[in-house]
Structures are given as C-alpha cells and as structure tokens.
Amino acid sequence: MAQTCNATCSSACTDPTATSCRSAAPATTDAGDVPRGPIALPSHPYFLVPGRAAAPLLYSDTPISFWGGINSHTGQVIDVTHPLRGKRLEGSVLAIPRGRGSCSGSLVLLELVIKGVAPAALLLEEPDQILALGAIVAEAIFGLRVPVAVLGERFATLPRTGDVEIDDNRLVIKSGGGGSSPRRIVIPLGQPTDGVKLSPADEAMLAGSHGEGVAQAMAINKAIAALYGAESFIDITQVHLDGVFYTGPAALLFVQHFEKIGARVAVPTTLNAVSVDLRHWRALGIDTTLGEEGTKLADAYISMGGDAASMTCAPYLLPSAPGVGEQVAWGESNAVLFCNSILGARTQKYPDLLDLCIALTGRAPLAGAHIEANRAPTLALRVTPAVRDVDDQLLWPLVGYHLGKSAGTRVPIVYGLDGRSPRTSDLKAFAAAFGTTSSSPMFHIEGVTPEAPVGRFPPPSDTREITVDDLRDAWRTLNTGADGPTPISVVALGNPHFALDEFEQLAELVKGRKGTARVTITAGRAIVEQAKDAGYLAPLDDFGVEIVYDMCWCMAPHAGESRMVTAEDKFLVTSSGKYAHYGPGILGRPVLLANLAACVDAAVSGTIDVRPPAWLGGAEVEVAQ
C-alpha cells in the first residue's frame, strides 16, 4: 500500500503510508527511561478515527496498557508504575506515545466509551491499531465516536498542559498563561486512507451473502486492515479469542450483538481464560454479577462455535497449537508473542473485538508479522557473561521485561543465550514479561527460537548490552511496596496458565512439606488433566494447593471481593513477572516476584525476605516503595 508521494505534498497528506512521509525520529523512552533508539514516525499527522472533540490535555511520554493499566469502570489509571497513576481520563484529551501490553486495550476503550468515562480523544505518537479498533467498534456498533489521531514527529511539540480542540481537519492546542507566554499550536490532520483490495469472496461477505453478522464483521475487518496498511486479506487456519472475559456491559453487548444475528465462527477457535471458574465461582466468593455476566459472556462465545474445552491464556500448550509458518489470528499478548516467537507461526497482535471479526470471516489483514520481511530483527541486545551464566528462573522474566522496554514496537533479537536450554515455562515467563512492556508482536533469541538459528541474523546497527544492573532495575520495578522480611498470605501461580513442567517442578518442591500461606494456581483444564495423569497433583493436594480453572490470576477481583484475595491479605508473592507488573493495580495489593522455589518457601514459612537474589546484588539493593 505504501506509495512514494511527491516532494510538494501538504502537511495534511492523506497517505500516511507514503514512504517520504516517514523519517527517523529521535530516540524515545518508555517507562524506566530505557532508550528505544531511532524509529520511523509519520511526518504528517493524520486521523486513525476522524471526529471532533474539545477538552483539556492529559499528557504522558510513557505508553500505557489500557487493560491492567486503566480501571474499565472508572477510567482511572491504576498501573502503579505509570506517571499518570491515579488520574482519570474522562473529560480530557489523552496524549501518549501509544498503547502497550495487552491486546484487550480495544475492549477496555470500548467499555470506557459505553460508560461515558473515556477520554474525549486520543493523540498518539505512533499508530496503534488496538486503541483505534476500540473507537471504530464504538462507532460502528454503538454509534459513539472518540477521535484518534497520530501526530508522529509533531507529538514532540506538544505542551504538557493546555486546552485542545479537534475538528474535521486540524488540531489546535492553547497553552500558557498564568505567568507564561500564551502559545497556540495548530496541527493539520489528514484523513485515513483505504487501499485494501477485496477478493470476490471478501466482497460477497461484505455484501451480506453469508449473513448480517459476517457482513458487519467484514466491514470492521476492512476498516482496521486499512490502518494496518494491508493491501489484501489472507486465509487463516485458526483463531484464539482474547476478549472473552467480562470487563463490563460493553464486552457482553458486543458478543451478544453478533450472537443474536446468528453469526458463527468460520475456523477452529479457542477461547482465552474467562472471568471466573465457571463451575466453582460461587465457592470462590465471586460477586454474583461478575459470575453471572462472565458466564453469559463465555456461553455466548461458545454458542457461536468457540471451543468450550479450551479457555486458557496459554493456547500454545494445547494440542491444537500451530506449526512453523502457519498463518493464524491470535489475541492475548503473551499468546501472540509465544506463537510468533517460540512456535514460529504467524499472527499479528490482534486486538479484542477484531479477533471475533476474523473468526467469523476466516480472513485476516495481510500485514505485520504475517509477512516474512517484517519478522526480521531491527534491534539487538546481547547479554553480558555475568547475565548469561545466571542459574535462576527469574532470569527469563527479568530479561523479557527489560527487553520489552527497550524494544517498544520493534522486533528485537537477544544474543548470548544460545547455550541455554530453557523449559516451556521459562519461555512462557519471558514472553509474558516482554508483553507487559512492549507493543511488538515478537522477538528472537539466537540459538533458542526457531527462526533465529545461530548466525542467521547479523547484529543490527542498533545493538546494546543487557547487564546485571539492567535486570536489577527490572527486579526493583517489579517488587514494590515491601522491604525486608514480609508476611505472605497468598502465593499466586499460573499467570499465564501453569504449564505441565511447572506442575512437575512444584510437585517436587512441596513433597513432604506443609503450607501455611494459601497457594492458588490458575490453569487450563487440559493441562491439569495431564498433570493428574502424571501424578503431580497428589503432592500438591497434600501441601494444600488450590487449583482454579477457566479464569486466570489477571481476572481475579480486587482484594476483599473474593476468597482468592481477601481484605486481610496484605502481600502476595508470584513467580510471574507479568503478574508482578499488573497485579498491584488489579488487586490493590503489593505483588512480589520470586522464583518458584522461593514461592514455596514463602508458602511454608508465611514470610518472604524482600531482597533481590545474590546475583542481583543481594541486600545491598534498596527496594522501591
């Protein structure tokens, strides 16, 4: 779709994919001030979703995951690591570089719009199809509009405060006053383009030959394909639906809309972890509204053909996992990263809502990680010898977390770990932690992941080191709110869902011991059955481990709203870098990070010494408060 525009194109250029409308922007930073290096930014601002708005500016130079970072009921920022923590988005024009992390940002934005607590508009530095999709669906299905604009290089000229007005073709920001000189910035905004070519079969779907539901899904599919810069669609072999958990009325209204008009999936479709353990949510003390609405949501997806036996945030652990080169459409950030990076299959990081549209049509935009050239690394990080030789499970989530901050939207490669033999659970932890801080759909680890055999990719020009200091910083970020010996009442395992090798490790660690803290694992039913057949569950039962099915720790209610985390539980410990990042905002409690052996020790003693492991500097390191 990219074309070369002429040298006289105006600042309101309507082709944001034109090759001369992009240039190398200065180095930018994400949370933690990790430099991301030069990236290609549009030089001509344009709408992703046109519209009008007027409201005060709410600015941050740090990306945020709308899911896990923003309360979907109130619009308040709950990510404890984010500079906007505690701010409410309602009544503001939110300016951020882009989203990051979860594929569910689209669903959360839709929820905010339906509830009337969304920002009046979004101003982005880089295109973000996940957030744009939430706005597209809000208008297409519910008739509600939130404009989304990409400013590219002009994002750097934004003031930190001011009043914003957006009309059909420009953005005006007024700032200053009260002791500083008034300032008025005018930025022309181009319109989104559509160069997507439809096959005869696509045209037929769009025209309604397969029913109203498929026609509406294809229209949404086509709208987002244009934003991806896709020229056409491809057939896909399977879909993993992410947004099957209850974030509020919008999640249910969206799926019921398609269910009521008779839509059904066109390809095999697995389901993400849902909101509650469908069989035992009452015993867990889950709120009746959440339990009933979450069950309705799951039932609606199943009624349209979703696999009722799947319900996992780790579909790569299922027998249906795709092979190298297979074209699929997966949602759920850790699943997308594992799919592309570890399995070698091909998918975009598909947003919630779009994943259902693709499942209903069997067609996905030919863009991004579906294309071979887009899977090559453009950033390299080489671990130092001191990092390479670390023998600790924490190595994997910490390297993944730091790598994600460094990568941003780019595809990175890690050098120096080719002598390692990581377990499935190690790679799962790496991908999940990477996904919390990055917007990229994949990564490579030379000598470990299938598309990066040793020597295939020479180091890109942007090559850096990963040092022990970098990982110490990551550890400090993920261990907030405690220092020294700390009482632990809950051990949270299985985010993403527990793998079979983790069940095996845990069974060994707990043999002959008794827990004092509650240990709760969230896991998919298929893997639990495998663990049972292998004899791993008996030692866990003796220790007092509880297994929760269908849902994931990321869906656990706020502390005090269920038996999973009560009002009396003050500190949790987890082996998941992802949950150490998101958990504090979700639960309202500190969630501390430790390896699996240390988690078991904490469960036995009821305490954990919140100090980094010796290889990170031990007790000399001060923990963030």
Automatic annotation (TrEMBL):
- Give yes or no: UniProt keyword NAD: no
The record, for InterPro entries, names: PMDh-L-like_dom (IPR007506), PMDh-S-like_dom (IPR002840)
- What keywords does the record list, in alphabetical order? Iron, Lyase
What positions does the domain Phosphomevalonate dehydratase small subunit-like occupy? 64-139
Q: Give GO MF terms, alphabetically.
A: lyase activity
Phosphomevalonate dehydratase large subunit-like domain sequence ranges: 197-601
Q: Which PANTHER family match?
A: DUF521 DOMAIN PROTEIN (AFU_ORTHOLOGUE AFUA_6G00490)
Name this protein carries in UniProt: Purtative protein
